[in-house]
Amino acid sequence: MSQPDTQRTLATWKGVCSEADLVSNSGVVVWLDGAQVALFYLPGAQDQTLYAIDNHDPQSGANVIGRGLVGSIKGDLVVAAPIYKQHYRLHDGQCLEAPEQRLRVWPVRLNAGVVEVSVG
């Protein structure tokens, strides 16, 4: 019987900024292994308060998602892209107006005052 591959089951967490760098109910952008990642900190949210989503807007081609407005549509937390205003769900990156589009999302957590994103 083979042993489970622990390298695949264990996430690798990488610190990207401090908790003090976050802005409540807004986005900040960090660099993560060649990608711009928009972090959204929503301290009043019921379930999850921190989200990491791709900063690249596929509609405009610009890296602007971190500047988008955060809101709620039919119970889903979303960010509105600043240029063409399409809405992306924060938990899975799905575009509400164009379901075939999805932004990449990363697991993210706060660990002793450091924001960490899973890279594995």
TrEMBL record:
Protein name: Rieske domain-containing protein
Entry's Gene Ontology molecular function annotations: 2 iron, 2 sulfur cluster binding; metal ion binding; nitrite reductase [NAD(P)H] activity
Keyword Iron-sulfur: yes
Superkingdom to which the source organism belongs: Bacteria
Domain Rieske per the UniProt entry, residue ranges: 14-117
InterPro entries tied to this protein: NirD, Rieske-like_NirD, Rieske_2Fe-2S, Rieske_2Fe-2S_sf
Keyword terms of this UniProt record: 2Fe-2S, Iron, Iron-sulfur, Metal-binding, Nitrate assimilation, Oxidoreductase
PANTHER family: NITRITE REDUCTASE (NADH) SMALL SUBUNIT, PTHR40562
Single Gene Ontology BP annotation: nitrate assimilation
Any Pfam family: Rieske_2
